[in-house]
TrEMBL record:
Alphabetically ordered keywords of this record: Hydrolase
PANTHER family according to UniProt: BETA-UREIDOPROPIONASE, NITRILASE C965.09-RELATED
Taxonomic lineage from the root: Bacteria, Pseudomonadati, Bacteroidota, Sphingobacteriia, Sphingobacteriales
Residue ranges constituting the CN hydrolase domain according to the UniProt record: 4-259
Organism expressing this protein natively: Pedobacter rhodius
Protein name according to UniProt: Carbon-nitrogen hydrolase
Keyword Acetylation belongs to the record: no
Gene3D superfamilies: Carbon-nitrogen hydrolase (3.60.110.10)
Molecular function per GO: hydrolase activity
Length: 291
């Protein structure tokens, strides 16, 4: 029976990049002290969620990966013997930027990165202004404690992304994310949106027979117009909630995942075995209408 303890860090951010990095490192230490072996930080944790506006000055927040933030986190990963999943704004080259997550192993080594594949462009989420779609494909990383798959925020709505990541052998799927409610919305709409967000990710866990860990930011941003809804959670391989964070508080929680459940669930609910892969070619079309 293989068990892994994962840490979820749900926190508020400020305009000060170094302050946010230092805070995140403190939260990693807190999670490690609680027994965490893998710690996941939320999407773009070194800054406020800047994609609410199209502002060229925000490109100054980007950095190389590997770079200053990964350098600092590698030291902490090695010291604490923990894997760190770190979502950062990557400057790849002049005028070329990505929404990227770096993975640092428990010995402090840099294992690589995943670049967000699905990029939204909605009111208050103008990510296409900043981020080039990922070109590394879907990724899994063989860490000291588990083989982990990384997807980022908007990726979470796509069963194709989670399926491919699971088929690459992920033991756990992690989703660093940043999503919230417009504060002028009614409560019923808020709950409908959150329930849809949680449900789609839990369905990835059910369909693929793997645990899912989703880590969201929390707190008011955008001059009070946006309340990032927190609600970070972890499921087992059947989509059962093992932990659910609040909508309005910072939380650092450690959850134990039993990875042996994946084999059990895939044998008893053999969705992977029963897939008709010979019938799926049409899914590569934009829409099935004869054009």
């Amino acid at each position: 029976m293989k068990k892994v303890k994962v840490g979820l860090v749900q926190m508020t951010c400020t305009k000060d990049k170094q302050e946010n990095l230092d805070k995140a490192i403190g939260k990693v230490r807190e999670a490690a002290a609680k027994g965490a072996q893998i710690v996941c930080l939320q999407e773009l944790f070194t800054s406020l969620y800047f994609c609410d506006v199209e502002d060229y000055d925000n490109f100054d927040l980007a950095e190389a990966i590997p770079g200053p933030s990964t350098d600092a986190l590698q030291v902490v990963a090695k010291e604490l013997n923990v894997v760190i999943i770190a979502s950062l704004f990557e400057k790849r080259a002049e005028g070329l930027y990505h929404n990227t997550t770096a993975v640092l192993d428990a010995d402090g080594s840099y294992l690589g990165k995943y670049r967000k594949m699905h990029i939204p462009d909605d009111p208050a989420f103008y990510e296409k202004f900043y981020f080039t779609p990922g070109d590394l494909g879907y990724k899994v990383f063989e860490t000291k404690f588990a083989k982990i798959g990384i997807l980022i925020c908007w990726d979470q709505w796509y069963p194709e992304a989670s399926r491919i990541t699971a088929l690459m052998g992920a033991d756990i799927m992690f989703y660093p994310t940043a999503i919230g409610w417009a504060t002028d919305q009614d409560e019923e709409t808020n709950q409908d949106q959150y329930n849809a967000w949680q449900t789609i990710q839990r369905s990835h866990s059910v369909a693929n027979g793997v645990p899912v860990v989703s880590v969201n930011r929390v707190g008011f941003e955008q001059d009070g117009a946006m309340k990032f809804w927190g609600g970070s959670f972890a499921t087992n391989a059947q989509g059962k909630l093992l932990y659910l964070a609040s909508h309005d508080k910072e939380e650092t929680e450690v959850v134990e995942l039993d990875l042996s459940q994946s084999d059990f669930m895939r044998k008893h609910w053999p969705f992977l075995r029963d897939r008709r892969i010979d019938s799926y070619q049409p899914i590569t079309k934009r829409y099935i209408d004869g054009d």
